[in-house]
Amino acid sequence: xxxxxxxxxxxxxxxxxxxxxxxxxxxxxxxxxxxxxxxxxxxxxxxxxxxxxxxxxxxxxxxxxxxxxxxxxxxxxxxxxxxxxxxxxxxxxxxxxxxxxxxxxxxxxxxxxxxxxxxxxxxxxxxxxxxxxxxxxxxxxxxxxxxxxxxxxxxxxxxxxxxxxxxxxxxxxxxxxxxxxxxxxxxxxxxxxxxxxxxxxx
Length: 202
Known about the structure:
This protein has helices at residues 17-23, 30-43, 59-67, 89-92, 95-98, 108-111, 130-142, 158-170, 193-201, and strands spanning 49-53, 72-76, 101-104, 119-124, 144-153, 176-178, 184-188. By secondary structure, it is α/β, with parallel strands linked by helices.
């Protein structure tokens, strides 16, 4: 069995935003980073298997990798991992983070039905149109462990709000709003995620 390197530590952006951004070598989107810190706090447990689709500039993936040093992070984006030029912090992180990171160049609607793995935290920041958002969160929900959390960016966009609100109503979910940088939404699946984590380890 391959021995995993000891996780390294990064500055906590909740304590020093500039130091974290310097450590992951990005200068962009500090307001988005601050929002991610609020989402991280709202999760309420330590995720171990994370799905982040709509990779974009890679900043959210970098947040999860550095905040949860034992977690694996699985990302997908149809535009490609390096579409966004110099701003791609995950590509600049050390190999100890890279070995916990998987990127798939594909649309979420294509990759989600094929995934056999499940996740305890899912972050959605992909296509922001109503039809595709509704499909994506529905497919992602099927991959979410009991007790897990799904969250997403751009709560202030009408199509996103409509899709999430309709999905939450059908599934009798309570939406938690997270303020900052176009806003975020968060829903929690019924169940005990920490118990499930222990089962998977055992």
